[in-house]
């Protein structure tokens, strides 16, 4: 009888402790899952490219431009023009060429959106660009011929492309000895004062 009286409280204690362990495990699981989500979010923010912080400059067509290209090569069908521009964007050679000129995937896409709006929404396209597009649609030229005009537009959308090398040199903090070259080139004169009076002042 005494053994049964002792065993029942022990069983109750074991059941309560088991419940506490389960509750603690659930809390720990929620904590670690939320912590892992935080770490994942932190990693995503770290991995965010600096190019995504650059705001593109809006480029609007000049209303005073004369549509001389249409008079020379004729009007460009919007559907054919849109198909040609999409073909230009999907070209792997164009993406590689853009990367070599400082345009990563994000900048390339943003510049392309601006270039497409410029070509489709504008009433007067630059004459040379109009003629090149007309030749490409007539299969007298290749779609890659659009890249110089696209890159010229991209340099207006992202002006920093003109000074990428200078920006790299300015932001390079790996060689402190090259910092402030003009200040380092200055001839300096050091005067050292020593004596009991200066020591007493310092004390």
Can you put this structure into words, describing what you see?
The protein is an all-alpha fold. It contains ten helices and no strands. The protein has helices spanning 2-47, 68-73, 78-90, 92-100, 105-121, 127-137, 147-157, 164-171, 181-185, 196-202. The longest helix is centred in the N-terminal third of the chain and has 46 residues, at 2-47.
Task: Note the topology.
Elements: H1 2-47, H2 68-73, H3 78-90, H4 92-100, H5 105-121, H6 127-137, H7 147-157, H8 164-171, H9 181-185, H10 196-202
Helix pairs in contact: 3-5, 5-7
Query: What Rg do the Cα atoms give?
Result: 34 Å
Structural class by SSE content:
mainly alpha
Q: What is the string of SSEs from the N terminus onward? A: HHHHHHHHHH
What's the overall geometry? elongated
Termini gap:
85 Å
Number of helices: 10
Report the major sheet: none
- Output mean pLDDT: 75
The total of beta strands comes to 0
**Which stretches of 5+ consecutive residues score pLDDT under 50?**
1-14, 31-35
Helix content: 55-70%
């Amino acid at each position: 009888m005494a053994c049964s009286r002792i065993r029942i409280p022990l069983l109750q204690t074991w059941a309560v402790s088991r419940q506490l362990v389960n509750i603690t495990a659930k809390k720990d699981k929620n904590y670690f899952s939320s912590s892992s989500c935080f770490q994942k979010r932190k990693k995503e923010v770290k991995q965010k490219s600096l190019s995504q912080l650059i705001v593109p400059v809006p480029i609007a067509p000049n209303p005073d431009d004369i549509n001389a290209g249409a008079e020379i090569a004729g009007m460009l069908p919007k559907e054919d023009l849109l198909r040609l521009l999409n073909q230009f964007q999907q070209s792997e050679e164009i993406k590689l060429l853009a990367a070599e000129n400082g345009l990563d995937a994000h900048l390339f896409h943003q510049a392309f959106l601006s270039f497409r709006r410029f070509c489709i929404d504008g009433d007067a396209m630059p004459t040379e660009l109009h003629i090149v597009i007309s030749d490409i649609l007539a299969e007298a030229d290749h779609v890659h011929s659009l890249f110089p005009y696209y890159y010229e537009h991209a340099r207006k959308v992202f002006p920093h492309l003109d000074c990428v090398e200078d920006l790299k040199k300015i932001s390079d903090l790996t060689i402190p000895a090259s910092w402030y070259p003009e200040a380092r080139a200055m001839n300096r004169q050091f005067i050292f004062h020593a004596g009991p009076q200066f020591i007493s002042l310092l004390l």
